[in-house]
């Protein structure tokens, strides 16, 4: 295990009816609020009216930034930054899934910065301050509600990049499982894949002597697998939705893998796919991850064998370490297929035309991953496996 520091400043407010605490949570932060959200789902569900009611009751002046894309775009972030500056916004409230929260974080760090907010995404500048923000989560997926990371697409340049900063952590996040009841099946599926993929990126590690972190990761995966199918069978199963929601948060708030080196190569590869083709992040990960697994498992077959036995319950009797590893990879792909996630790029209408570009962009700043370092040729081969 490596040395580490663990700190998370986000206050998590979890459970049925917790949106009613919004006014109290906002009191320390001022009255000029930017409300950030996506499409019309929060209006159809009644959440929009409820949130506005609490804000107005608290004496807030509310400005709105609607229409945040599923892969949030730099242009939307820039529009939010200008709105905040023009109206003297004191607090940003993101209501929606990870994309909305990621956009809100980028707006928050961009407002006090004199340059282009894209500088933070390409490493040209360091974040030193941000407007405070809070979230009301409506989708179990990214974990953005309790970390400092943000992913944004520069659509015109066909680039998708991320930053991470302690200054971008939400001050609070409200998680009411009932708000996820109306999430469409395909978004629930993508969220399941996204949560599992976040765990994979940290669990498949070369760091030795991490038994607690490994079992924590395995328990999250088991819980997602069990409750994912329950939630898909009955979208209003409160316990299943609650368990998925909490898994999404715990998978990426820093508590699962302290002292372990993470990988993140599969996310880097998927970012190149969705930067060009604008497919849902979870859908892209469901295609990439099983192929990444098959490409790299020989770097540590013992971890993949352990994964097969502990997560999927595969009987090790009479099987070699390699056979177990491959069985676990097959079980992963089979589960993704069973819940309706795509397995190939062709299913998403994507061919091989941009493979070379995606491979080169993925390693623009050098080899990616830590479980096994991947060069452009490796990324290209994984992408070909995805076809």
From TrEMBL:
InterPro entries, alphabetized: ADH_Fe/GldA (IPR001670), ADH_Fe_C (IPR056798), ADH_Fe_CS (IPR018211), BDH-like (IPR044731)
Pfam families: ADH_Fe_C, Fe-ADH
PANTHER family: ALCOHOL DEHYDROGENASE YQHD
Provenance organism: Paenibacillus athensensis
Organism placement in taxonomy: Bacteria, Bacillati, Bacillota, Bacilli, Bacillales
PROSITE patterns: ADH_IRON_1 (PS00913), ADH_IRON_2 (PS00060)
UniProt-recorded name of the protein: NADH-dependent alcohol dehydrogenase
Keywords recorded for this protein, A-Z: Oxidoreductase
Domain Alcohol dehydrogenase iron-type/glycerol dehydrogenase GldA: 9-177
Domain Fe-containing alcohol dehydrogenase-like C-terminal, residue spans: 188-385
UniProt GO cellular component terms: cytosol
Gene Ontology MF term list: alcohol dehydrogenase (NADP+) activity; butanol dehydrogenase (NAD+) activity; metal ion binding; methylglyoxal reductase (NADPH) (acetol producing) activity
């Amino acid at each position: 295990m490596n040395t580490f520091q663990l700190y998370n400043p986000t206050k998590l407010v979890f459970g049925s009816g917790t949106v009613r605490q919004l006014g109290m949570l906002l009191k320390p932060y001022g009255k000029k609020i930017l409300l950030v959200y996506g499409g019309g789902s929060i209006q159809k569900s009644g959440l929009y009216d409820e949130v506005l009611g609490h804000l107005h009751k608290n004496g807030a002046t509310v400005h709105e930034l609607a229409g945040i894309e599923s892969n949030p775009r730099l242009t939307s972030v820039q529009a939010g930054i200008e709105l905040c500056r023009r109206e003297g916004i004191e607090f940003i409230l993101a209501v929606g899934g990870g994309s909305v929260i990621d956009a809100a974080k980028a707006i928050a760090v961009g407002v006090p910065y004199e340059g282009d907010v894209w500088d933070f995404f390409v490493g040209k500048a360091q974040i030193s301050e941000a407007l405070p923000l809070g979230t009301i989560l409506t989708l179990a997926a990214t974990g953005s509600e309790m970390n400092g990371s943000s992913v944004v697409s520069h659509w015109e340049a066909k680039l998708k990049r991320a930053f991470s900063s302690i200054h971008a952590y939400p001050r609070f996040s409200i998680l009411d499982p009932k708000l996820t009841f109306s999430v469409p099946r395909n978004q629930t599926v993508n969220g399941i894949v996204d949560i599992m993929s976040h765990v994979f990126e940290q669990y498949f590690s070369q760091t030795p002597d991490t038994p607690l972190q490994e079992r924590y990761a395995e328990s999250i995966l088991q819980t997602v697998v069990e409750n994912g199918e329950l939630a898909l069978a009955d979208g209003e199963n409160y316990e299943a939705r609650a368990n998925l929601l909490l898994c999404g948060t715990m998978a990426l708030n820093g508590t699962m893998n302290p002292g372990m080196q993470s990988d993140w190569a599969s996310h880097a590869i998927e970012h190149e796919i969705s930067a060009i083709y604008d497919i849902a992040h979870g859908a892209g990960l469901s295609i990439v991850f099983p192929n990444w697994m098959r490409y790299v498992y020989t770097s540590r077959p013992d971890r993949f064998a352990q994964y097969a036995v502990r997560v999927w319950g595969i009987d090790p009797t009479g099987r070699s370490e390699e056979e177990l590893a491959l069985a676990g990879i097959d079980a992963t792909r089979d589960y993704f297929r069973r819940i309706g996630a795509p397995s190939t790029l062709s299913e998403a209408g994507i061919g091989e035309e941009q493979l070379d570009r995606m491979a080169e962009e993925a390693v623009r700043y050098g080899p990616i991953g830590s479980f096994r370092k991947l060069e452009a040729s490796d990324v290209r081969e994984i992408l070909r496996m995805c076809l």
